[in-house]
Design goal:
The chain is of the alpha/beta class. It is built from 15 helices and 24 strands. It is 31% helix and 24% strand. Helix 12 packs across helix 13.
Length: 495
């Protein structure tokens, strides 16, 4: 592949080695594209990426010595004396990598319907809802998200919510090869900030909601920066579908370049939920509702609360935009399940037990207040907190559970390099600010067994924090631990 083909959509300058002698990029042959110095080989194009802990520009000399054909830089670099390597100078190498990767893999996004979802909460659930609906209507849909990447029958464990642009383009190329016609993906604020989703325009961009999160030294400087990064999606999509009830929707749309549709409960929304009714049976919580606006249909979902309705409305709007009928949408919505997101696990006819990923105070409060609307006999919350993370999160989660649950079972999560008991004691500090009843059981399986053994008629029991995770991290080692398996072991032991 010619270097010029990879640079088609970029502003750049190509020079030879340390000189400022211009080179025609069409005479430079590229064998492969890499951004990891360990993968540099003769004929490679090496993209120098500046990360939080390592700057790829420091490997420019190594690239020349390994006979790479070219490097992409955004600053001056050290090269061997007399090196004739092609040096591509761009303003931002991360931005450039997205376009180079897209060209390298044959611009796969142009062969797919691309759907990107951003927001603080609801991204994961909504991606699966959309995938279910589209597959039910005969589409073959790839998925890229927090839990996994799905390409045909292949399920790949996800490292980042939104992969680096090179991996993202490679996944989409494999989807095209596997016969997919669509891809739905979670688009994190970090992914947008670091240009991981550049190189193509989304057919549909989605905004679920926004609350302060991911603010810190290695993430966003403040809420305004976080919000700005989320808003970038709506300068990179053809149709924007947004939660019209969110108070920040106008900020998210500032400077948008897409056609806009909104969903929600408010009168001004283009697609509205009306006539809500809660479903509460042993082992099952859900919602009935009708839609009004640009599509009128009856819907049923097997997850509880208003936030589940928001997720469903969003998925309905997307499916409608892609030509799905109510007859195709309704059954897919009813059967959709997402691992670790309000995942019901049937253990008894007397009470309801579920697994959820809620692992901060905001998510836990949202979950518990939603479940309160179902008027349980008792609301029981089992959770722990991760080690080597903010103590404030522990205090806050303890206080939230103490205020909104009737009984809290404090246990271990991923203690990492801390002692589980120390983390549990921090959670207890928050609990003690409330009148909530609680018990401390360090071993998570014992804690789950206690919850099951003490479940009463009409109780709702939430196992919070682990969700889709199937491991427990202790002293740097990830041990296999899946709550579904623990529950089954407990039930087998009780027989």
């Amino acid at each position: 592949m010619k270097l010029s083909n990879l640079l088609e959509k970029l502003e750049f300058e190509v020079t030879r080695g340390n000189s400022r002698e211009k080179i025609d990029p069409s005479v430079v042959e590229i064998k492969d594209v890499v951004n990891d110095n360990r993968k540099i080989s003769e004929g490679s194009l090496f993209i120098c990426i500046k990360g939080a802990n390592f700057d790829g520009h420091s490997c420019a000399k190594e690239a020349a010595e390994k006979k790479a054909a070219a490097i992409v830089v955004s600053q001056d670099v050290e090269l061997p004396e007399g090196s004739d390597i092609a040096v591509v100078r761009v303003k931002d190498t991360r931005y450039a990598m997205a376009f180079i990767s897209a060209a390298y893999f044959g611009n796969p996004a142009s062969k797919l319907k691309t759907i990107g979802i951003t927001g603080t909460k609801g991204k994961t659930t909504t991606t699966y809802l959309i995938r279910n609906m589209l597959e039910n209507a005969g589409h073959k849909v790839g998925l890229i998200g927090t839990i996994e990447v799905i390409i045909g029958d292949e399920h790949i464990h996800a490292e980042n919510t939104t992969p680096e642009s090179f991996a993202l383009q490679e996944y989409m190329a494999k989807m095209v090869e596997a016969g997919c016609d669509s891809v739905v993906m979670e688009v994190s604020s970090q992914g947008l900030m670091l240009h991981r989703t550049q190189g193509f325009t989304f057919d549909i961009g989605i905004f679920t909601n926004i609350e302060p999160d991911h603010i810190g030294p290695n993430e966003h400087t403040d809420f305004e920066d976080y919000m700005h990064c989320k808003s970038l999606l709506f300068k990179q999509c053809k149709v924007g579908i947004l939660n019209g009830d969110d108070v920040h929707v106008d900020d998210i749309l500032e400077g948008h370049t897409c056609k806009v549709q909104t969903y929600g409960f408010g009168e001004g929304c283009d697609l509205r939920a009306i006539n809500l009714a809660y479903i509460h049976k042993p082992g099952e919580l859900g919602v009935f509702f009708d839609t009004d606006g640009f599509l009128k249909m009856h819907a049923e979902i097997k997850t509880p609360g208003k936030f589940s309705v928001y997720n469903a409305l969003c998925a309905i709007a997307v499916a409608h935009n892609l030509g799905c009928t109510p007859e195709e949408i309704a059954p897919a919505l009813k059967e959709a399940k997402v691992k670790g997101r309000i995942e019901m696990v049937k253990v008894s006819d007397d009470f309801t037990l579920m697994i959820d990923y809620a692992h901060n105070a905001m998510a836990l409060k949202s979950l518990l207040t939603t479940l309160r609307d179902y008027h349980p006999n008792r609301l029981i919350c089992l959770f722990g907190c991760g080690g080597n993370r903010s103590k404030l999160r522990r205090f806050e989660m303890g206080e939230v559970s103490g205020r909104y649950a009737d009984v809290t079972i404090i246990t271990s999560d991923n203690p990492r390099f801390e002692e589980p008991e120390d983390i549990i004691n921090d959670i207890e500090t928050g609990m003690k600010k409330t009148d909530g009843k609680y018990i401390k059981i360090t071993d998570r399986k014992e804690a789950i067994a206690y919850a099951i053994d003490h479940g009463e008629q009409g109780d709702i029991i939430v196992l919070a924090g682990k969700g889709h995770e199937d491991y427990q991290e202790i002293k740097g080692v990830k041990y296999h631990m899946d709550e579904r398996e623990l529950i089954q072991e407990i039930l087998d032991e009780r027989k």
